[in-house]
Amino acid sequence: MVDEAHRTQYKGLAENMRTGLPNANYVAFTGTPLLGSKKLTYNWFGDRVSEYNFSQSVDDGSTVPLFYSRRVPEVWLNNDYLDDDVLDIIEEENLNEEETRLIENSSSRILEVIKRDDRLDKVARDIAHHFPRRGFLGKAMVVSVDKYTAVTMYDKVQHYWKLEKQAIIKERNQAKDKDERDKLKEMLNYMDKVEMAVIISEEDDEVKKFSDKGLDISEHRRKMNQITAEGYDIEDRFKDPNDPLQLVFVCAMWLTGFDVKSMSTLYLDKPMKSHTLMQAIARANRVYPNKPCGIIVDYVNVFKYMKKALADYANGDNESELPAKNIDQLIVYIDQTITEADDFLRSININLDSIIADSSTFDKLDKLRDAYNTIISNDDNKEKCKVILNTLINLYDASKPEIFENNWSNEKFSPLAYLHGLFNNTIDDDKIKRAKDGHTHIASPAPFLRRRGFSMLCKNENRCPVTKPDSGFLSSCFLSVVYASINTEYACIHLLDSCSVAAGETL
Q: At a CB cut-off of 8 Å and minimum separation 6, what does 133 contact?
């Protein structure tokens, strides 16, 4: 019985064992068989006996689903590079002299484009922006094309990390309400605690080699070899979900056979295909509490050619069998879950449409509270609704920050999220009561909302879906009050979708 049926099982001691036991039957297990033109795994071990694919493991709960996000299109490789022989060479972290010469003399411009300094700046800036804004703040890897680029990316992300913090501090200082200020403060606290590291293999004379390229490897190597007072090495620290080491920069190490269950994000900036790509993206699909999925951020555009890159591991043209899906599909799942929640509520005589249509903001809140009481009066309904709402919020969190950038909206999300808040005791009833008491003396709700800080709910003005005020008064302030009591981030994409604004008024 052979675990990991890879090249190590073809020659040497493995071949001696076959010679010594010529009549034995051999059964091998592997997640990434070599299935190229030579089909090495099948030639050595025989045809496939049983297959357990990505979609089956997700269905069984053995792994979480994977989604890819193709960010920063100006840094993508737009030509189909998968047939380039250079890809086979750059799989290895330590290149010999002949391999180095082949790359340097290659007619391929892949490495020249990938390592261009202005391109790396754009990728690093996006990582610094994306990482603290994710929904599930799991650990992450940045995968670069070689050792030198891994160190360069570390330096660049560190630079843009500081700039990102400065921008968030400025935004926090200008925040007009406590909820938004607290949210930004929470993000800053997280960024202050995050520790990063470079993880690359050691080689002879590396200090001089890096120095010749204007890089310092000494401090990185010291950190890689460091043992903590508790006896933990760098691997132990990254595997510990509570350790501040959250983001690592690699090129080949830790991409195979290294499991970190809390890891949720892979920033991919290295061309890959076949079993190498499969092994890399699988780093993000391990099951961990409250981790809804793994996200692959694709900077090299490999998923444009995913069917070809993973042709040996996908079954025909069935999109559902591919190991990773576009993050847009995650947003589709959110809409589908909203529909499921709406259908369930209708089955117990709760009509979200009629609640949303109510002209009074506070009547809506009262009706949602009544709906909540109806749901929890039956244990089966209570448990089913909790599962649906938890799924909805987990999917929504998993889609951040892309869901904000896509200007997604669904009017039924907000009342469902409010119900989720009631289930989880995150609704500030006192705040709503104070707003209701004040509302009895207000002729127009728009100035009332602005005085209480709701003018800043849309945190990024450049991404607001509304650029000009509509005519008519603020007819539906529902989200303003609800999400001041939960979380301004939810309101960011829904407030303007649900409100009309008086001419000349500003939200």
A: 187, 400, 401
59 and 47 within one domain: no
Q: What is d(CA 216, CA 353) in angstroms, rounded to the nearest whole number?
A: 61
Q: Encoding tokens for residue 413?
A: 């999300």
SS3 state of residue 246: strand
Number of domain units in the chain: 3
Q: Which of 262, 295, 322 is the last residue of a domain?
A: 322
Give the residue carrying structure tokens 């929904």.
Answer: 135
Looking at the fold, whether 281 and 415 belong to one and the same domain comes out as: no
Work out the number of other CB atoms within 10 angstroms of the CB of residue 197.
18
Q: What is the CATH number for 92?
A: 3.40.50.300
The span from the CA of 252 to the CA of 264, in Å, is 18
Q: Which residues contact residue 20 at a Cβ distance below 8 angstroms, ignoring those fewer than 6 apart?
A: none
pLDDT tens string for the chain (507 positions)? 888 776 677 777 788 888 999 898 888 887 766 655 556 677 777 788 888 877 788 888 999 999 999 887 776 666 665 555 566 656 655 556 565 555 555 545 677 788 899 999 999 999 999 999 999 999 999 999 889 999 999 999 999 999 999 999 999 999 988 889 999 999 999 999 999 999 999 988 999 999 999 999 999 999 999 999 999 999 999 999 999 999 999 998 998 878 999 999 999 999 887 777 888 888 999 999 999 999 999 998 887 767 666 656 655 445 556 778 888 888 999 999 999 999 999 999 999 999 988 767 778 888 999 999 999 999 999 999 999 999 999 899 889 888 888 889 899 999 999 999 999 888 777 766 666 666 544 444 444 334 333 333 333 333 333 333 332 222 333 333 333 334 433 333 333 333 333 333 333
Domain shared by 298 and 228, yes or no:
yes
Within-domain flag for 245: yes
Same domain, yes or no: 40 and 75: no
The verdict on 224 and 290 lying in the same domain is yes
Shared domain for 337 and 254, answered yes or no, is: no
